[in-house]
Every structure is written in C-alpha cells, then in structure tokens.
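re: ur question from earlier - yeah i can do the single chain one, its not a big deal. heres the input i used so u can compare w yours
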Amino acid sequence: MTKRVVVLMGGTSSERDVSLVSGAAVVKALNQSGFEAVPYDVTHDVAALVAALTPKPDAVFNALHGAGGEDGTMQGLLELMGIPYTHSGVLASAAAMDKPTAKRIVEAAGIRTPKGRVVALQEVRSGHPLPAPYIVKPVAEGSTVGVHIVRPGENLPALDAGWSFGENLLVEEFIAGHELTVGVMGDRALAVTEIRFGGTLFDYTSKYTPGHAQHIIPAPVPQPVYDEAMRWALLAHRTLGCRGISRSDFRYDDKRPGTSGLYFLEINSQPGFTPISLVPEQAQRAGISFAELVTWLVDTAACDRRAA
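and the output i got, formated as tokens:
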C-alpha cells in the first residue's frame, strides 16, 4: 500500500522562501520514489492544518525552517495528533533552535564555542558588550538572518534601525578563518565541507543564491581538525537528542595550534533541501542520493507519544 506523506513547507518565519524550495524538492523526490506526497503550505490557520492532517497521513515530512516549524512548536502539534514526523522531537528541536541553550548544552559535553553571552538590546545600543570584532545574533533564528559583525570603531545605528528579533540577543567573539559544516545522518557524521564565499559572513544571499559560495568536500583542513569536527557534530547531535539529520556549523582559525582554533557555532535540526543545500550534497558524496535521503527520513519518522 502506498504511503501517504504530507510535506509541510512555507510557514510564516523569515525562512519561508527557502522552505518552499526545500518542500517542492522533497515532494518531487518522494513522488518519484513511490510515495503519495501531498504538499501543504503552512499558515497561521491551525484549524486548516489540522484538517489537512485528517485523516492522519502515514507520516509528515517537516520541511519547515525557522520559528514555528523548527523550534518544537510544530513537533508538539504532531505529537498531540499522534502522527510520525521527520527530524528531531519537541525538546531537541526547541533546544537546537535556541542558540544560547544549545551553546550551554554542547559546552557541557566538552565542545568549544566562542565566548559570548545573552544581552539586552539596550545594552548593545549603549556600548560594546564585548571587545570588537564580535558577532550579534538573534537568539532563535536560522539562515544567518539578523546576524551582524561589529567591527572595531563601528557604532551601531544600522543595528538600531534594522533589528526586529526581540529585546534580547546573543553576542559572541568573532572567530576568523574557515567556515566548516558537518552533516549528521542517524548515527554517523557524513563529511566536513568548507564553505568559501566573498566577505567575512556566510549570509543569507551566499547560502541560497547559486554561484555565491563554493563548497569544498572534503574540507582541506588538517586531519586532526577534520576528525574533531566530525566527532563534535555527532556528539552535539546525540547530546541534544536530535534524530534524523542535523547539520553543525563551525569556524576554524588556522593560526591557532592543533585543533584549538576549531569552534562550534550552532546546530540546525532541520537542514535545507534546496538544490544547493549542504547535507544532501554531503549525502550524495557518501553514495546516498537525494531520493534515498528523503525516503530514509520518512522511513525513520517517529512520534514520541503516538496516540493509540
């Protein structure tokens, strides 16, 4: 019997456009693999969503990104309805999405992260909370949305005018060097990719515009650094309780000795499925096609408290 899979996509977060692209690619791959894949563009209409999930599908593929889809909110609804869904559960999703929480959890497991703290927006506007250069981040956004590098001698009028991510934010020391990322699938890390791009920040445009960034697999870094990034990505995935796939992002300062220049930045519990997304690219290098990856996610979909 053909499995019916509802693919949740779109949503209402700042990453809506990326989610629509991811969702469309997933629907196409699932249909080609013999599933009955049904796309659903999520809005604020919860009653309409519940109706779309009634009768219950065999599984939900959660292709949402950002607030409302990746932070435990959607996962909680699916748990209440007793519908198996892809990716991480409620607690892991919420912890991974909240950068300060994820930072504390992985640090407790022995993973190095940049020095930083949560501050009130007013404190940043009143003066530098850290020696520049440093990074300003929303506490719970993805795709580098709202991330800003504060350089020595720079005042913050641009941050005043453009900030719309709440009254608290995360400030961290800026780590110069290489941008690395590691995808995890189940119980294994896939590969380390180095991402090269113009400028000093792997921003939204670089991530989602073809030709704006170069992905190098395997990353041309010393073997101990490569191995440590792989180990840390899997450790972060397990420590946070993620399931399915995740992607951990790192910075590597090659001017520091050994592995001391490697820093964990954040973990994404629902990485993208666009034509230039990093985890499907790493899976492909490991011999796992895009269709096989999304099929595996559906086959391993779970519900922690499935209703009788």
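Residues 11 and 43 are 5 Å apart (CA to CA). not sure if urs matches, ping me
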